[in-house]
């Protein structure tokens, strides 16, 4: 029987947000961090944690859903999928939650990420810990030692083809740092950054220098998703999920999709964007504020192109003259992002997207109606539009 | 040539044993589809172009061009060029660049060399084409 195509648009909303502090050493377990963030999100929403009947986790998170449920004394979980691919999972775990509440498969779903990334396992040192049996055996043994180096390979190609400059990477770092300087929760709150500082920093993998790299963070963040009907009776103004989408693009291999025709194009987002704009019924011009996953600065420039904020190759010129800062063309990563607030696999950026729609960010964009949030580049990933 | 640096060592498996066996003999063998004749990398069970399971390990010319690169400043002995080489046969390989960082340029022709990193493993590296 033919069935009318459904859409996820506005069928679910984020009603609670919660975070721990962000630090280099939390001094407590990842389970404790997860519980603190989820509990805070429930308090923010005005529900008891015992009302949670769905939890969506990152596969790479160390905390299992049954143990979380046991800690909270939850009687029954009805929905508990997980998404793999590291930082690619952030928006997707919210998408899963939204689909579940839209279909009546759960009432209140918690989506979270908790990690002691700085005091525990550091991704920048992954080569030492990674068994060379998977696809990384074709890159790491040749000296491509860490995710930043893998992105450097794409950044150089972008520079070669389009004349993108390292000062453009600096513009990205400086814009987000300025936002962090106004956000008391940001790890880099007290540290200013200039284009000169960026240009003079230690080289790590040419063309990337120290401030092109994101933070390493201990911390956790969580959101609560429910249906619009339930949201009416809760504490906060609901933030609607206007659209949500996952994507891989062609020849996907985590961090090194080098067999693609154009390695300087984040093809995973190009595919996501076409579906995302269609479902939302809006376009790049309608976005008031973006929260781009920013593990490394060049990826922000490439995302501007993939999502259609500018043409291919024009990401460098786009970011010049403070375009990503408050008051600029597209205020981006208003809490400081992964580069200057915290690296919590992008959950902090979803939380900031919610704050922008509520109008409660310490770095608030005036009259913010539509926010784009993305998850990690170079891996199977996702994106959300919130309003 | 033998590399002086401790390199992380790949762990060969059933799908890529012949690739590593070839490198040990100083031959670059890549999978070539028996149905559509296309080369592919990295080693996979199936041809991503035509979905055939049938392939042979075919010897490549060892010639290509630098598609992109990066210069690793840590923790390898600095500075260490890493190349993305586009082979004449089509696939691209990440490899060690046997040249100074100043010499590396996108589009430059390169040819294969080999670095023995242990008794078990030899890897390819690329130098400027003659």
Short note summarizing the structure:
The complex is a heterodimer of chains A (387) and B (130). Chain A has helices at 30-45, 65-72, 90-102, 126-129, 147-162, 166-180, 195-200, 228-231, 267-280, 297-306, 315-319, 337-340, 347-358; strands at residues 13-19, 54-58, 82-83, 109-116, 203-206, 208-209, 218-226, 239-247, 289-291, 371-374, 381-386.
Question: Mind explaining what this structure looks like?
Answer:
The complex is a heterodimer of chains A (387) and B (130). Chain A is α/β, with parallel strands linked by helices and 387 residues long. Helices cover 33% and strands 15% of the residues of chain A. In chain A, strand 10 and strand 11 (381-386) form a beta hairpin. The longest helix of chain A is centred in the N-terminal third of the chain and has 16 residues, at 30-45. Chain A starts with 12 loop residues before the first strand and ends with a strand. The model of chain A has no long low-confidence stretch (mean pLDDT 96). With 130 residues, chain B is mainly β. In chain B, 6% of the residues lie in helices and 39% in strands. Chain B has one helix at 17-24; strands spanning 29-33, 39-40, 55-59, 63-72, 80-87, 92-97, 109-116, 122-128. In chain B, the strands form two sheets. A five-stranded mixed beta barrel of chain B has the order 4-5-6-8-7. In chain B, strands 2-1-3 form a three-stranded antiparallel beta sheet. The radius of gyration of chain B is 15 Å and the shape is globular. The interface between A and B is medium-sized, with 33 and 35 residues. Strand 5 (203-206) of chain A pairs antiparallel with strand 4 (63-72) of chain B.
């Amino acid at each position: 029987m033919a069935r009318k195509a459904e859409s996820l648009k506005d069928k679910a909303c984020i009603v609670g947000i919660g975070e721990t502090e962000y630090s280099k050493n939390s001094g407590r377990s990842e389970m404790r961090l997860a519980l603190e963030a989820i509990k805070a999100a429930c308090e923010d929403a005005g529900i008891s944690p015992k009302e949670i009947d769905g939890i969506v986790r990152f596969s790479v998170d160390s905390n299992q859903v049954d143990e979380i449920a046991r800690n909270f004394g939850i009687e029954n979980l009805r929905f508990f999928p997980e998404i793999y691919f590291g930082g690619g999972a952030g928006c997707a775990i919210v998408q899963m939650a939204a689909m579940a509440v839209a279909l009546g498969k759960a009432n209140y779903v918690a989506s979270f990420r908790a990690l002691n990334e700085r005091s525990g396992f550091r991704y920048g040192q992954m080569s030492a810990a990674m068994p060379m049996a998977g696809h990384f055996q074709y890159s790491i043994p040749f000296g491509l030692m860490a995710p930043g180096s893998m992105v450097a390979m794409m950044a150089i190609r972008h520079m070669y083809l389009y004349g993108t400059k390292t000062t453009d990477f600096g513009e990205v770092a400086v814009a987000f740092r300025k936002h962090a300087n106004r956000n008391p929760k940001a790890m880099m709150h007290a540290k200013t950054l200039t284009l000169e500082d960026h240009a003079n920093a230690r080289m790590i993998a040419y063309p990337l220098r120290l401030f092109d790299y994101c933070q390493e963070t201990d911390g956790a963040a969580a959101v609560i998703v429910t249906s619009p009907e339930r949201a009416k009776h809760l504490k906060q103004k609901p933030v609607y999920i206007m659209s949500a989408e996952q994507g891989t693009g062609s020849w996907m291999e985590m961090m090194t999709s080098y067999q693609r025709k154009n390695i300087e194009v984040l093809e995973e987002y190009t595919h996501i964007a076409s579906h995302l704009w269609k479902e939302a019924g809006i376009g790049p011009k309608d976005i008031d504020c973006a929260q781009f996953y920013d593990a490394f600065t060049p990826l922000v420039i490439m995302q501007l192109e993939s999502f259609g904020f500018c043409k291919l190759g024009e990401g460098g010129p786009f970011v010049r003259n403070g375009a990503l800062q408050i008051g600029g063309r597209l205020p981006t990563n208003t809490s400081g992002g992964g580069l200057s607030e915290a690296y919590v696999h992008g959950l902090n950026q979803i939380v900031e997207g919610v704050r922008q729609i509520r109008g409660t960010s310490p770095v608030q964009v005036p009259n913010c109606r539509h926010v784009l949030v993305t998850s990690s580049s170079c891996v199977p990933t996702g994106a959300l539009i919130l309003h | 040539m033998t590399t002086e640096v401790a390199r992380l060592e790949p762990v060969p498996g059933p799908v890529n044993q012949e690739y590593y066996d070839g490198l040990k003999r100083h031959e670059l063998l890549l999978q070539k589809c028996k149905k559509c004749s296309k080369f592919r990398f990295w080693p996979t069970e199936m041809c991503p172009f035509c979905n055939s399971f049938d392939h042979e390990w075919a010897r490549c010319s060892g010639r290509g061009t630098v598609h992109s690169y990066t210069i690793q400043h840590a923790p390898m002995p600095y500075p260490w060029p890493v190349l993305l080489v586009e082979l004449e046969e089509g696939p691209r390989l990440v490899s060690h660049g046997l040249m100074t960082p100043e010499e590396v340029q996108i589009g430059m022709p390169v040819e294969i060399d080999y670095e023995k990193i242990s008794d078990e493993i030899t890897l390819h590296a690329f130098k400027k084409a003659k």
